[in-house]
Structure formats: structure tokens, C-alpha cells
Amino acid sequence: MKKIIQLLFFLISGNVFSQNSYTISGRVIDEYNEAVPYAIVSALSYDKSVMISQTSTDSEGNFTLKGNAETIKLIVFATGFETYEEKTPLKWDKNISLSVIKLKPLITELSGVVVSADRKKPAIKLEEGKIIFSPKESSITSGGNALEALRKTPGVLIDNSYAISILGKKGAMVFINGKSTYMQSEDLANFLKSVSVSQIKNIEVMLNPSAQYDAEGGAGIINIVLSKHNIEGTYISAGSGISYWNHLRNATDVSLQHNTEKLNINASYSHHFGYINYDYGSERKLDDKWYISSSADTDRRSSVSGNFGLDYLLNKKNTIGMNLSVNSHFGKGGIDTQNDIFDKNFNYEKTLYGQSNYFKQRNARYALSTFYAFEPSENEKYNLDIDYVFFDGLSGVNQPNWHKDLGGNRIANDVFLADSNRKVHIFAIAFHQKFPLWKGNWLSGIKFSQVSSNNISDFFTVLPSGNLLNVNRSNTFDYKERLLAGYLQYAIRINEKLSAEVGIRSEYTFSLGKLFPRQGSNQKYQENKRNYINFFPSASLTYQKDEKIAYSLNYSSRIARPAYQDLSPFILALDGLSDWVGNPFLEPQKTYKISGSGTWGNTTAILSYAYTNDFSGQITEKQPNERVIMIPRNIGYQNHFSASILQEIRWSSWYKMHINPSLFYVRNSFQIENYASFSPSKWTFSCNSQHQFQLPWKLTGEINADYTTKQIANVNEISKPSGGIDIGLQRSFWENQLSVAFSFTDIFHTRRWDSESHLPNLDNYIWGYAESRQVKFYVTYKLGKQSSKTAHQSDLEEADRL
Q: Which residues belong to the signal peptide in this entry (predicted)?
């Protein structure tokens, strides 16, 4: 009997394969127009329902069936959806390209209660060693900006100076669509404030980036992937909303995308209008006196951004494209500061009042990107990218200061004016290639970039007769940096379960900084030239036991070059008693990191250790005349250990939770004068959790909570515990075309940046908080006609590029 069955199978197979074979291709999406991966697609004979061909969709929802028949019917099955069956008979005597197949969510009625399958995309997931956060899937981030979304990203912490850390280690580099922004700290924060959450597809957190990525960023890379639809047709999305606590704010965004078989055009506009408050201060004990400061800061700046992109498919193998974007953060602002001065017995002596009236502020970024992509096959790609970025920043601030004695009489009255202008030109060109080699894939590339910065700072004393330039506090600082990088990387699947990847990256850096003092100044011309070459090896080993269990081991080395603003030696007055000054002798930091991870179903654990030499940070130093300065210095080295868990728990069909507890240890070892006795260290626990509920009346509820214990914030500064709770509600109408979201962020107003630091004869206690408690309401409307999948999706959105 067994031989007869084998013979029949052979005869049938021979008959089938002797006939002409055709294909049916298409794409399966859900009600949100998102891809449905791993759906089962079957072709059955129309009259007898005999299986002819079967396959499953890939991660993008695409499928291809092979075979032929007189007439067939298609059936699509996917978990959480109603089974799709094509009623109209389809004649399969040629290659067929279908329109998209949209599946409906599965709805079940139990004892009068309607339960709909949860098809909302997970806001948090882990893929290929990356922590991926989708802010658009959270009602709490609706109407927000990219900086707010980063604060909600698991494992990411942002302090009050906008320094970004990953699992407690500072020095994260932020990329947009796989490319460096070439910005740090406040400039980066202003740029991110101008990027609407609606423009963001995913935020990817990479602890150990491979050699194909820029080596910059000691803590790792945060890649913000902007949205781009890959469905043919015209798609329009518009959203607007308000937020309120101390001030009323408006956020609005509009996006348009038109796709044809060969052309992809996308455009977007967004703005954020309204004021926001910050309150902060310090208690400083310097020698035998106390200085108690408090400031009320109102930021009146607005953010506006625009984007236009075009991809054109020359043919099936060649694509060209360009993207033009403008981001601007501009407006006025005001800071009122009061410094009360006491003697060592806490007897009041006098009060110093100060104001910072910003009459102009602008941080604008203009970027033009072009690319050419050649893809002779699915596994072979060649990319050429050319980018130009122009950054234009300026500020003007009027600073009146006065003293009052015990009787409330003014004993001094000075008015200063600071005017600064900064222009940065960035040019980059990169070539990247990927092709099969032996049993694996070979990746290599080369990149050249140049940064030219011109910084003008003028400081005036305001007199009745006019403004008098203070030549000793005014100067011009020019900085140029050229970088030539190349990398080699090889990835191979050793067997069905084991894969490996090794790479090496080399970067040659040349930098030149020049300080030009004003005529008559006691400052001197300074020039600081550097050139150096570094090598950055990386390696990873992955064992995939089965679909649910996997283990990986990763190693990489990274670099953190000084921000060019930190290399300028000019003095910036912060208030009447403290200054910030740059350091032209800062050295780059080198970080060596090893990490391991394990995934068991919905649970992932990550262990990581990093060692950083020439570790740098901002320290506070005493100066004559009751003043202190804050200056960045290379202080020694740092050891950093972290352990983190990503866990998804689905308690029921209507409630799921993501939780991310982390434990990290930081030890800073000083090797500079007056700090030798300090080696601050601290264990820190941090936890972020997200809870999503399917509620009656088709509402989706969300609760986010985060908490961080004491941690080393900056060199020897210990920040105090902080955290908060956000809640949100969201509902969709008209087949998900209209979405309404309501949220209440930081409901107990507990997200603060309190800290303390101690040095000989200098104790500093800092406190502060922002207008993080807000009530938000946001409405989004989507309109579009999608008919079929595009023939090509540009590599601009892919991460495997320079």
C-alpha cells in the first residue's frame, strides 16, 4: 500500500510540474492598513475545494503563490481575524498581481458581551536585538513631539540638560532613518521638539550597533524611523489638539503621500504653539556662605517643521530619491532669578535679583538628502547617499541684575546684553554595498563627512549712552571636523540555529578649533588641532533554539567625541553667581561594551557591561569672588553594568501589560587634581510599565508608569528618585479613519530633577521640575485610497545603511 501511495504521488507530481506554473502575488493588511505577517494564503480549486497551492505572508504582508488551474478561489487565515474567502472565481492561466487584501478583526459575542480581537500593534517589542517602541500606538503620546516620545521609550532616560542615556549610561547618539543628526544636547532637543509623533513609525534602541553604523555614541544608538506608507494610492492624515495646565498649547500635523507603481511622493507639516513653564533652583554652600537660588522660566518658543520627499523607480533595479526638510524652534522667553545670600550661621546678608529676557531665539535646521539605490537581486544592494545640513542658531538676551540690602534698598544695578550667533554647515557622502558571499552576506561601505561651525559671542554692558562691548567676554570660535570612515562586515548562518556576524570599522578624524578674541581683549588667540585614527571591532553570535527561544552575545567598541560647543573656551554667564566655560583640551571617550540577551517567548533579559576611558563630564569648580564655574573635563574612567528585562503579559483578551525593570551600577573613578579622593558609585533601579485595556464602547485605555531610584547623574552628582504616572483613552470611528485621544500626563507632578553633589568646601543641592502635568486632547483623521502594493520600497527607511 505504501508503494502504491508513493507511485501515485510521483505520477501526480510529475503531471503538475510538467505544466506551466504561474504566480499570484499580493499583500495582506489589517484595518489600520498595516501589514499582517505570517497569514496563511491558500489557492483552492473553485468547484471541489482541492488544495492547489499554499504559502504564508512575509513580515511586510507580501505573498506569492505558484501553480495553475482553470478556476480557483483564495482563502486567507490569520489569528485574530475573520477568515477571508474570495467568492468570485479566478482564472489562473497567467501571472496575476492582486490588490491588497484587507482582513477584518475577529469579533465574538459571549453572553451579551462583545469581545473584539486586539489587533492594535504592540507599542513595545524586541526585534533583532533592538528595543522597538511605536509611539503612534500609544494614546498618551498623541499630539506630542519626538522628545516626549523618547522620554516614554523603555530603557531611555533624559535629564534636565537633555543628556540622553540608555540603561543609565549617558552618551546615546540619535539617528533619523539610520543617519546621524550631527547634533547634541540642547540643539538636538530643540530639533526633536519640532518633530511630531505622527511622523514617527518606530524608535529603535540599539545597545551594540554593528560596524555599519557610525561609531559615535558611547551608550549606543537611538534610531528614529520616520513613517512612510508603501501602498499605492493617495493617503492623507491630519491631526490637531490642545494641551493645558499652566498654559494652553496647540499641536497640529498634516501629511500627504501619493504612491504609484514608479513614484512615491510624501509631504508633511507640523507645528507646536504655546508656552511652557520650568521652575528650578539650588542651595549651594560655598566655604562659609549659603547661596539659595530660585528661578521661574517661561519658554515662549514655537516649533514648526516641514518635509518633502520623492522616490522614483527608474526600473525594477534602480531607484533615485531626494528629501528636503526644515525644522525650526523660535521665539522669546524669560527667566526671573532670585539669589539669597546667608552667612555660615544662616544670617541673611543680601539678595541678588536677575532676569534673562530673551528677545530673540532661533534654532533652525535645513536638510537636503539624495540617494541612488541599485538592487540587482533581493540579497544584493548598492546605495549612494549625499546629504547636506545647515544649522542656523541665534539668541539675544537682556540681563538686568540688582542687589538689595537688609532694608530692601538697591545697592547695585547692572544691565548686560548677550548676543550670540551660530552657523553650522554639514556635508556627508556615503557608499554602501551588500551582496551574498560564500554562505553568508558581505557588507561594506565608506563615508566622508565634514562639519564647519562658526560661533560668534558678544557680551555688552548696557549704559544710558549705549551698549559697551566687553571685549574680555566676547569672541569668535571656529571649528572644523573632517571624518573618513570605512567598514567591513560579514554575516553568516552557520546552521539552522546558529548565526554569526563580525565587523570592523575604521574612522580617521581631523579637527581644528580656533578662538579669535576681540581687539583689546586680555584673551589670546588659541588654536587646537587634532588628528587621530580609531578602529572599532564588533561581533555577535545568535543561537535560535526555536521560534520562541533565542540567545545572543554581542561585543562592540564606541567613541564619544566632544561636542564642538564644549571645545570653545568662552565664558557664558548663567546667573549672577555662576558661569559655564568650555574646554578646548577635551579628549574623546572610548567605550568597550559586551552584552548578552536571552528571549523566552514574551520575556527578554539583557545583561551588559561597559568600560569607558578618558571619561568626561561637567564638574563644578570654585572661583574667586564667590563664584563657581561649570566646565567639562576628562576625569578618569567609568565602569557600567546593567541588567534589564522586557516582559509582555497578556492577562486576558482585553488587558495586556509591558513591563521593563532595569538595574544598573555606575562607578566613576577620578584621576584629576582635587578629585583624587572621589570615586562615586551607585546601584540604581528603574522600571517602566505600560498597561493597555480594551474597554466598553470600543474604547482603548492606557496607563503608563515609570520610576527611577537615586542614580549618578553627572560625574559626582547624585540625582534623587523620580517618576510619574500617565493615563490615556482613545477611540476610533468610521472604520478607523477618525481617532480621538485624551490623556493626562504626570498626574501627580512627580517627574523632577532633584540632585546633590559634594566637593571640598562646596555642597550643591539642585531642584527643578517642568510643566509635565498636562491634560491633552487630540483628534486625527485619515483619508486614503490604497489599491495595491508598490513595486519598491526605498532603502531610506532601512537601517542597513551608513
A: 1-18
